[in-house]
Amino acid sequence: MNTREVTRQYRLNQWIEIIQECRSSGQTISSWCAAHNIKLQSYYYWLKIVRTAACESLPVVGENTQSIVPVKISSSITAGSPTVQESSSHITLQMGSVTLALHNGASTALIENTLKALSLVR
Q1: In which residue ranges of the chain is pLDDT below 70?
Q2: DSSP characters over 43-76
Q3: Which among 18, 19, 55, 81 would be 20 to 30 A from 27, CA to CA?
Q4: Would you tell me how many other CB atoms lie within 10 Å of the CB of residue 15?
Q5: What sign for the dihedral angle of Cα 27, 28, 29, 30?
Q6: Helices 40-56 & 3-24 angle (0-180, nearest 10)
Q7: In whole angstroms, what is the distance from residue 49 CA to residue 4 CA?
Q8: How many helices (H) and strands (E) does the chain have?
């Protein structure tokens, strides 16, 4: 890691701390900045840089990437566990009040994106 990158990371960490402190204070941004002798323009610039860095650190989802998502089905199904029903036309996954039906013609991308979205819901 070169000097520029170390400096950038150091500043980014400082700005993250300032933004977190401001947000956790319970004050408005303008009153907090005034109390801490920080220009509003500086605060919003730092916020923009922090948000940009956060977006850049997200993993890239490419069109050509495929992954296999394992689905574990236990022999003893308990309350709240997903249940799987297979028929000739589709698979139905049910967990609590959520039911997902996958038909034979469903594209790989649709299945992959649906499972990714479901993995984010807890």
Answers
A1: 60-68, 72-90, 95-98, 118-122
A2: HHHHHHHHHHHHHHTSPP--TT----------SS
A3: 55
A4: 19
A5: negative
A6: 120
A7: 15
A8: 4, 3
